[in-house]
Design brief:
The protein is 45% helix and 18% strand. By secondary structure, the chain is of the alpha+beta class. The protein has two domains: 13-77; 80-174, no CATH class. A four-stranded antiparallel β-sheet has the order 1-2-3-4, covered by helices on one side. Strands 5-6-7 form a three-stranded antiparallel β-sheet, with helices on one face.
């Protein structure tokens, strides 16, 4: 195990601003869909031209993009590091839902999963059920949903971190206890 005092990766404010801008555009488009009148929707003559569907899509877009924008603004104002590796374990604050410290003794390893063009680092836990029991209901549901895409309830997204993906992964692996 690497016993140095600790390594942290900061949250990248430019990346957060860029992502917030993108979700702002999605929010604007969703508002536009919600405000469309029924006549202009029906004029499209498509299977998607039902006003209830377009308005519902706009409402859903407003809810989701609005919630993500609020989370991104909270991250923008957050001065704590996005990811910390130290002697106690791993403290991931890189996503919109932060986790608490996961002790090195609970971590079996790290893996990489590619979803579309984005790579994620997942934490292979020795006892995932034990980890899930200690989460609140909303975070538990979020972690459980993660397990459909990756083989772990704990996923580190590097999208908001100041650091290269490979550097972060290599640093994480350097803290793992040596194999017997």
């Amino acid at each position: 195990m690497n016993l140095e005092s600790g390594t942290s990766f900061a949250l990248s404010k430019p990346k957060i601003l860029l992502m917030t801008s993108g979700y702002g555009l999605l929010l604007a488009g969703s508002i536009w869909l919600l405000q469309m009148n029924d006549t202009s929707i029906r004029a499209v003559k498509s299977i998607w031209s039902a006003p209830w569907f377009i308005h519902g899509l706009g409402g859903l877009g407003i809810l989701l993009s609005g919630a993500i924008i609020v989370g991104l603004i909270r991250k923008l104002l957050d001065s704590s590091p996005g990811l910390v590796f130290d002697g106690r374990g791993l403290n991931d604050n890189s996503g919109l839902f932060s986790t608490r410290v996961i002790a090195w003794d609970d971590i079996a390893g790290f893996g990489v999963k590619r979803v579309n063009q984005r790579r994620f680092i997942y934490v292979q836990l020795k006892e995932p059920g034990k980890y899930l029991q200690n989460l609140g209901p909303f975070r538990r549901a979020s972690a459980w949903l993660n397990s459909f895409w990756v083989p772990s309830p704990v996923v580190i997204t590097t999208a908001l971190l100041a650091g290269r993906f490979d550097d972060i992964l290599n640093k994480a692996k350097s803290y793992l206890p040596e194999s017997e």
